[in-house]
Amino acid sequence: MTDRYGDIWIAIEGESASRIYDIIVNSRIYKEFPEDMKLDYRENLLFIEDSWWGYSPFADFVMPFLMGDDYYYLQYLGHEFRWETNDHEGKYFTIPAEANIEVIWHLSLNANSANEATKINEYARELNKRYNLELCTREYRGLEFFDWGFCYVDVDSDNIKVAEEMIKEVVAHFPDMKLTFKGSGDEACYHWEKRSKNGVLVAVEPWRVGVHCEKESFDELLTHIPFIEQQGFEVCRKESKSSLYWEYDHISEEEICNDTIVGLSKKMPQVTIYSFKQILEDGAPAVETFCILNNGVGEWLVDLAFEDLIEYDCSNGYRWYKPSSIWKTIKDPECCFEQLLRKARGGEGASVDSVYGVLKCSVDERERNSDGRELAHWLALFKPEDKQWLMEADRTLCDCIVLAGMHHNWHSEDGNMPLFEYNAEDEKRLFERVSSNWAEFPLNSTYYEQKGYIYLLKFTNLNYRSILRNYIEGIEPYMDKTDKRLQWFRKEIGDN
Description:
This protein is 40% helix and 21% strand. It is an alpha+beta fold. The relative contact order is 0.06.
């Protein structure tokens, strides 16, 4: 996962303001995600605010294509704690005064026991006679000692480097201890972790694994905790969820972690074992991969649609999954999807968004998803009453599903009867909307999404090739003739 994120503010003057405003509000992306971009349009002046993760498709690709560099911007690069602007005269933007506030850096060294913590603290105090790091003050800066180890907090990067050297020397002095070094800057926005091995700090990637079985077999699973601990893992049990969890280093312990789970399954050959892994960085709850094992046999799979199938609790201001939801999703993702569909039919906006997320993921991420659940798999769970909310969603993928569903049914038992009632006016209106939105695909986008739309439109009698021809005419001047997307488009319209 990328760690790049930020916010950008853009100001456009003159006649271009009206033109760009019309392009944005009529674009497919803005219609589908109107909350992602804030617009403030006045006569001959347009302000745009966009928050991004990874990169900003609009600021990085669309704006240079439409405007060159003829606009003003102010941008905060969160991953670098840095501001930048081209409005050097301060006509619309100035870098905020608080931007000059120094980053607070936090370093810590943790031991595994109180006895070890006492030893590293004593040695650190002795070393500090030479390093001369200031002891902690009321301003919460400096060197401070605790029952678990010690930490150093400062805004001075030079002092931080000195503290890191002292920490390395402490680690080297205790090669038999398993110490954990953690660092962060700008609170939790930037952080890293290392662990000591033979007196040297080594970078790690903390992951978490969960193991689950049915309630009637959990007592047997508990008897195998010593086996897990023998592999070097500290086990946390959640008896109410019939689950065990432990953390591990994805870099160095991935193989032994997998072998441990397989070993557990072989020790319980009559029991189905469910497992998942997730990255602990930023407390990310997403399931990176999952596995269902019987007698040690199973395959680690990926389905990014799980992100939208899992139920989350945001009541405390944090987005975290409900404890049993991951296991429910792994066991029966179709049931979870049908539950979302029922809520979407009732007008629940969040469920509409989640259903859309699952469908879009099955199209956009088909190469990364390895469990075989593609778009048709989910469409087989739709019912005739889903037509209404799909049309109201006003999203290109939803429109294409309705168009296809008026000619086709993904239910095997009803294959000869269309899923949705045919209506000529609906078909005309939706196809016009699809045609209009198609032109808004950015040049840098993948064509998997467009492939998904064509897959759906092929079930109809509509002339979808005209859409592709118009799109090619618009993008071809800016693309390499050998580009695989262009080749695929031409193949679809029969030009190859």
